[in-house]
Design a protein that fits this description.
CATH topology of chain B: Muramoyl-pentapeptide Carboxypeptidase, domain 2
Structural class of chain A: alpha+beta
Number of strands of chain B: 4
GO biological process, one term (chain A): endoplasmic reticulum to Golgi vesicle-mediated transport
InterPro entries (chain A): TRAPPC (IPR007233)
Pfam family, one (chain A): Sybindin
Order of helices and strands of chain A: HEEHEEEHH
Shape of chain A: globular
Strand order of the largest sheet of chain B: 1-2-4-3
Subcellular location (chain A): Endoplasmic reticulum; Golgi apparatus, cis-Golgi network
Order of helices and strands of chain B: HHHHEEHEE
CATH architecture of chain B: 2-Layer Sandwich
Distance between the termini of chain A: 35 Å
CATH superfamily of chain B: Trafficking protein particle complex subunit 3
Number of helices of chain A: 4
Largest sheet of chain A: 5 strands, antiparallel
Number of strands of chain A: 5
Strand content of chain A: 5-15%
Largest interface: A-B, 36 and 28 residues
Oligomer: heterodimer
Region (Disordered) (chain A): 1-26
Chain lengths: 179, 187
């Protein structure tokens, strides 16, 4: 299981480089959403979009694997220490997508990572400014966009990286409307 | 920000999706089956091909269903079957199915359809007696459930085109496949 080992360097170096978007939320510059990842259940990164990312520590494939590994482990972990459910499996037992409680964000002093996973295993990760509110509605909207422009596209082979211009265009337009 | 919406009911779902003319749908499907029969000639081959097409449709359909209906993970196969019968069939075909004949372990059940838009105006000729005309539906269910980590087998038990009184398909859950960490620990 991979834990977020490389990430701690990211959060400690970032404040010196340059913090998350210069505009605080509420100024409506559309610069809030910084990075978006979309993974499927096999760990294939279907989409990686960045709108504002001052610091890159790893090359893209490593970065994506790390992100997927983190979320896989984090989801398993949060489900296992859930104090409200009676049944607890062992920590090593893999989970079904959507089973157990679903975590939906974590926040550091420089960024907030928002997460949505569908029961079919599609994981959406949006990194934003730390003071943004609950982004579940945003992520649901992006999931709807994914369904409309990617899933319904007959030229798209499921499980491969997304190369649909219409999806990218609508995504960019939608992201601009986010504060 | 308000929390995500609660799951919608079958009728609300059906009203919220874009609909297509029923006859267009039926006739298009009929044309597909007709063409497959001409191209493949063997009825068994056509059945397999319909199932494969259904499987491909199902793997994509499930995301649309999950996005539009807001259902979260079903706790067990019984709940899954109810969701498919009430919401799934309603959303995509406009008809509700009933779930019956549960076996003792709760892993196998039947979906009964009184009304099936795929088969309006259809009669099977004598040369196509082995044809499972609605086999695409079994493929769709199999494909969709596989994307939510349930491996199933779907067979047709009753078929109105063969003289029975309703359409019944038997769905058996063979395995629940949990997610595995896909990368080898090589770095």
């Amino acid at each position: 299981m991979q834990f977020f080992g490389g990430g701690s360097s990211l959060t400690s170096v970032a404040p010196e480089a340059s913090p998350a978007p210069s505009a605080p939320p509420g100024t409506g510059t559309g610069a809030n959403a910084q990075v978006l990842y979309v993974f499927n259940r096999g760990g294939v990164c279907l989409l990686y979009r960045e709108w504002h990312r001052p610091l890159r520590t790893l090359d893209p494939t490593q970065d994506q694997k790390l992100m997927f590994g983190l979320l896989f482990s984090l989801r398993s972990f949060t489900a296992k220490i859930d104090p409200t459910t009676a049944e607890k499996g062992n920590l090593g037992v893999p989970l079904l997508p959507g089973q157990g409680c679903s975590f939906y964000s974590f926040k550091t002093n420089t960024y907030k990572l928002n997460f949505l996973e569908s029961p079919s295993g599609i994981k959406l990760i949006l990194i934003t400014h730390p003071r943004t509110g609950d982004q579940r509605v945003t992520l649901k909207h992006i999931y709807n966009l994914y369904v409309e422009y990617v899933v319904k596209n007959p030229l798209y082979a499921p499980g491969t990286p997304i190369k649909c211009d219409l999806f990218n265009k609508h995504l960019d337009q939608y992201v601009k409307t986010l504060i | 920000m308000p929390p995500p919406a609660a799951p919608k009911s079958g009728d609300a779902l059906f009203a919220s999706v874009e609909r297509v003319n029923a006859e267009l749908f039926t006739l298009t499907y009929g044309a597909i089956v007709r063409q497959l029969l001409t191209d493949l000639e063997e009825v068994e081959e056509v059945n397999k091909q319909l199932d494969q097409m259904g499987y491909n449709i199902g793997t994509r359909l499930v995301d649309e269903f999950l996005a539009k209906s807001n259902v979260s993970r079903c706790a067990d196969f019984k709940e899954t079957a109810d969701v498919i019968a009430k919401l799934g069939f309603k959303m995509f075909l406009g008809v509700t199915a009933t779930v019956t004949n549960w076996d003792a372990e709760g892993t196998s059940c039947s979906f009964v359809l009184e009304d099936n838009p795929l088969v309006d105006f259809v009669e099977l000729p004598d040369t196509c007696q082995g044809l499972q005309y609605c086999n695409v539906l079994s493929g769709v269910i199999r494909g969709a459930l596989e994307m939510v980590s349930m491996k199933t087998e779907v067979t047709w038990v009753r078929d109105m085109l063969r003289g029975d009184d309703a359409y019944e398909m038997r769905v058996k859950l063979t395995k629940q496949v949990p997610e595995e960490y896909p990368y080898k620990d090589d770095d």
